[in-house]
Write a sequence for this structure.
């Protein structure tokens, strides 16, 4: 792993003892990732093999697509299928054949596992291999699990990308691979900035088209755009890629450090770097400054949900003067948040969840804003607390200089609502 020296705060969180909790959790399952993955990879289809609950979850999370041909569906395994696994496999093959004959535009099909017991018994990896032979050269068929037993919320993307890693073509060329779903508009902005820096061999994973997989090899430098790709990163490292350790491109400071890490790895001169980022960084500073009066000094409590908590808490503390009371994350993988821990001003850190105990700590602290999942937000609001839905932070374009003001606004808005209600 390589990295760049960054302005470290002497009170950073590197040595803060982490409270590890293993109790009841209040987090969406990994199926949720389909909502943003199907938008990103325009030629892929996600077939959830699950129950009616799974179907309801992704339909309500994604909204019903009336005008567009949907690119996800649920093959519901009912009681009839429990009669025997042979029936189950036949039924799955029948659904896949029917889908692929109706939809010749699908180039990659993901079979997505879930947690009902009848699905757990079904070997989806074997099913995808069986079907892949039948559709070789026509449709790539892969599988991963989005089960709530094995995955939280953003781990669905990790599992999906990891399933694609063996299919990435090999290269010996030097390239930069940006890993983690980001909005197309943000991807275009980063591509322009990399070009101005003279870094032109840049690819994104996941790609916009599942057929255009990025190449990987011993000269690939890996730069993470999302902090929840624990297993994908290790699979990419096993294919020879070198991970660049950097903070995440959230806010001016994070985006600058992220780009500088890439620039240093590709030998870009400091003057060229400074001139390429000067204008967008200044625009971002101006946009963020607008929200500082609303956020400065506000006390914030983070429930574990998306794994974006540590980078977001760092942005809010360092650039907007927020005081973090507790920053919770479902998993704390130092390989992925190493650079963030030095920058996050000292605060209580927790990993995993025992929701009742954490609710007690949150209520005792009485924060100005609580960042949490949908399931906790409504009850907390009913008790008079202000909340921010963490799911919105995954669905919205928040990365890069041009989104930094919008990101600050996402946190200022709930507080502003309180202010307006008081008048
Ligand atoms: S995978 Fe499990 S947790 Fe997720 S919607 Fe289906 S039944 Fe619920």
């Amino acid at each position: 792993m390589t990295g760049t020296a960054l302005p470290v705060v002497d009170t950073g969180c590197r040595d803060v003892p982490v409270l590890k909790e293993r109790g009841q959790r209040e987090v969406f399952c990994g199926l949720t990732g389909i909502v943003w993955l199907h938008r990103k990879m325009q030629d892929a289809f996600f077939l959830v093999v699950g129950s009616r609950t799974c179907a309801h979850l992704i339909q309500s999370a994604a909204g019903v697509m009336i005008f567009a041909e949907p690119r996800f569906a649920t093959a519901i395994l009912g009681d009839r299928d429990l009669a025997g696994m042979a029936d189950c496999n036949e039924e799955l093959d029948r659904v896949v054949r029917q889908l692929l004959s109706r939809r010749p535009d699908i180039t990659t099909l993901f079979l997505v596992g879930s947690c009902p017991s009848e699905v757990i018994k079904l070997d989806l990896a074997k099913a995808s291999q069986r079907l892949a032979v039948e559709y070789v050269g026509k449709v790539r068929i892969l599988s991963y699990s989005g089960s709530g037993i094995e995955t939280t919320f953003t781990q669905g993307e990790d599992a999906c990308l990891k399933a694609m890693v063996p299919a990435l073509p090999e290269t010996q060329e030097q390239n930069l691979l940006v890993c983690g779903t980001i909005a197309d508009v943000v991807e275009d902005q980063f591509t322009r900035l990399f070009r101005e820096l003279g870094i032109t061999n840049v690819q994104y994973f996941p790609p916009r088209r599942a057929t255009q997989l990025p190449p990987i090899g011993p000269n690939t430098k890996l730069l993470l755009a999302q902090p929840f790709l624990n297993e994908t990163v290790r699979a990419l490292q096993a294919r020879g890629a070198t991970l660049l350790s950097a903070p995440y491109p959230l806010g001016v400071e994070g985006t600058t450090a992220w780009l500088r890490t890439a620039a240093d790895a590709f030998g870009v001169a400091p003057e060229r770097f400074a001139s390429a980022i000067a204008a967008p960084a200044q625009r971002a500073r101006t946009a963020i400054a607008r929200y500082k009066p609303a956020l400065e000094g506000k006390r914030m409590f983070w429930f574990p949900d998306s794994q974006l908590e540590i980078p977001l808490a760092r942005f809010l503390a360092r650039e907007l003067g927020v005081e973090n009371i507790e920053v919770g994350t479902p998993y704390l993988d130092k390989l992925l948040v190493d650079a963030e821990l030095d920058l996050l001003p000292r605060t209580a850190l927790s990993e995993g969840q025992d929701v009742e105990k954490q609710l007690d700590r949150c209520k005792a602290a009485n924060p100005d804003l609580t960042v949490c999942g949908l399931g906790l937000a409504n009850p907390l609001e009913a008790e008079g607390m202000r909340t921010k839905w963490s799911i919105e932070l995954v669905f919205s374009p928040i990365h890069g200089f041009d989104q930094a003001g919008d990101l600050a606004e996402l946190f200022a808005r709930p507080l502003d609502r309180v202010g307006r209600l008081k008048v």
